[in-house]
């Protein structure tokens, strides 16, 4: 798609969303409660800091919630049905999670520089959805965290290349890991940057993609790296 075609597509998409919002009253993305983007009850479901081990002992990631019920419904409305009004609400929830997790790790959240890294989307996914969905989340997160007195930047340095099919079509951690193994690329050398790198994703299922992202960043020179997500699939005991 050329630049002119892309601009026309974006304009038409924005126009359609505006018309939809005028003609149809919106409901909560999670439970359809009237006149809410994310209602207070559903927002409460996102206010956790669940921990999930990643395969291959590459580290852990943390989620605002488990991926089920109203949380799942809200994320799918945002991710697959173009509910971009959720961007700000989700970014604020992730910003709170960032503060909680880094403070728990004793990394000195008030003095440590943070670099937010949006998890990569494949070119086919970006074409289908019209955007790289984790990028606006990280930018809004950075704005909120900086306003709160932190030192936060955004580096969209992860790229996913040469991956075919959807991640949901690969079952199990091993299968998902094979699907993306060697396809996560870091676009710049991160050596010398001593900030804490925070990879931000929407959903962590088996953890294969997040694990590959953390490994790729470390290989490119990042020191300390953690993963955050709106939701993780529940542990067996959750």
Could you describe the 3D structure shown?
The chain has 238 residues and is of the alpha/beta class. The chain has one domain: Rossmann fold. Helices cover 42% and strands 18% of the residues. It has eight helices and eight strands; from the N terminus they run ααββααβααββαββαβ. The strands form two sheets. Strands 1-2-8-7-3-4 form a six-stranded mixed beta sheet, sandwiched between helices. Strand 7, helix 8 and strand 8 form a beta-alpha-beta unit. The chain is globular, with a radius of gyration of 18 Å. It starts with a helix and ends in a 6-residue tail after the last strand.
Notable characteristics:
single chain; alpha/beta; two-stranded antiparallel sheet; 8 helices; 8 strands; globular
Chart the SSEs and their pairings.
Layout: H1 3-23, H2 40-45, E1 50-53, E2 60-66, H3 69-80, H4 86-104, E3 114-118, H5 123-129, H6 134-147, E4 152-154, E5 158-160, H7 173-180, E6 184-186, E7 196-204, H8 208-219, E8 225-232
Parallel strand pairs: 2-8, 3-4, 3-7, 7-8
Antiparallel strand pairs: 1-2, 5-6
Helix pairs in contact: 4-6
